[in-house]
Amino acid sequence: MSWIFLLLGVIAEAMSHVALKVTDGFAKPVASALVLLGHLAAFMFLGQAMKGMPIGIVHALWAGLAIITVTLLSTVIYRQHLDLTTCLGMALVAIGIAMINISQGHSH
User: Fold this and answer.
1) How many CA atoms lie within 13 A of 57 on its CB side?
2) What is this structure's pTM?
3) Residue 107: inside a domain
4) How far is CA 26 from CA 11, 23, 95, in A?
5) Are 64 and 93 in contact, with CB atoms under 8 Å apart?
6) Phi/psi zone of residue 54: left (φ > 0), alpha (ψ -120 to 50 degrees), beta?
7) In this structure, is residue 65 part of a structural domain?
8) Residue 41 belongs to what domain range?
9) Which pLDDT does position 97 carry in this prediction?
């Protein structure tokens, strides 16, 4: 169940960060509310995920998955260009996530 909460936290965080671009410095109330609610939801989900997983593992996975998700969503929604260096960086993040996930030092 912790993994489900972790993934929900990643989705909430990523959607919140993508919406942040359209807040116009928090001048647009609807977009601003979406950002704040997304962050609140993300932390609520992460708190639930931490009931069954170590905090360091949850945070590392959340951060890495959020980086990848925000980058991919930004590419689709805002048509931001991913160059070779960015793609390589994303691959390294994904490798890091895989290494954390297969490590012997935590339980799910």
Assistant:
1) 20
2) 0.83
3) no
4) 21, 5, 35
5) yes
6) beta
7) yes
8) 2-102
9) 82
Return the DSSP state at 107.
-
pLDDT score of 105 more than 60: no
Tokens 């160059």 -> residue: 83
pLDDT grade for 96, boundaries at 50, 70 and 90: confident
In the chain, how many domains are there?
1
Distances (CA, A) of 79 to 14, 19, 29, 84: 16, 14, 24, 16
What's residue 104's pLDDT?
55
Region 50-76 average pLDDT: 90
Burial of 74 (0-12, 13-18, 19+ CB in 10 A): middle
Length of the chain: 108
For 48, half-sphere exposure in the C-beta direction (CA atoms, 13 angstrom radius) is 15
Rounded to an integer, what distance in angstroms lies between the CA atom of residue 83 and that of residue 31?
28
At 99, list the tokens.
């290494």
